[in-house]
């Protein structure tokens, strides 16, 4: 493992969630009003629940500015499948956050929305930590496997493997949105620290390929090998191939 990558292997999902929350909360206590990046998906749900417990125990998250990685497009914010809805329920309200940002899935022009989001990120000030999950295909945000890394926020078709993976969360696979707005690789790499959470045997191969394989846009998370400060919190099953 490269020296810039610190690995915590935890017994199971619950322990991973707790460890991730401890690391994140410690960063927020040190820099309460800086900018932080959030991810959605199944992986960080447990960590977000742990953060709510830390808030109840006295950690103040309310000063942070937050940026989410991505949003489906098109989707209404009040659609229960939107990432805005996910965040409001699991993070924004439970942690008392008000300075929150997500790409707008209702924007009339998706390309212009990406440009606007990119500008907001550029003016965010100190960007302390980006939380990430990893797709089964190695995507980070919705930067899907491709033949080049895309730096800027962009409007993307979702890979068939992502549509298949996310179908579990919808009543019917045909309901999975086919497009999304995502930050680009540059914004992720600009965070001072990356906190990557990974859980389950199904992610073991892609985690090993990302951290120990070639750096290639066909495995977007492999770019993290070039980031100066990555903390990976994985459960045993996900870390099995490292
Ligand atoms: C979500 C995101 C995605 C997920 C990835 C893993 O905002 O950016 O890259 O982190 O698809 O999703 P889960 O955690 O559901 O396996």
Features:
10 strands; globular; 8 helices; 3-stranded antiparallel β-sheet; 7-stranded parallel β-sheet; alpha/beta; 34% helix; 242 residues; binds fructose -6-phosphate; single chain
Element-by-element helix/strand order = EHEHEEHEHEEHEHEHEH
Tell me the strand percentage band.
Answer: 15-25%
Strands in their spatial order, largest beta sheet: 1-10-9-6-2-3-5
Shape: globular
Which stretches are low in confidence, meaning pLDDT under 50 for 5 or more residues running? none
Major sheet characteristics: 7 strands, parallel
Pairing-aware structural class of the strands and helices? alpha/beta
The portion of residues assigned to helices is 25-40%
Termini separation (Å)? 8 Å
List of distinct ligands in this structure: fructose -6-phosphate
- Give the radius of gyration: 17 Å
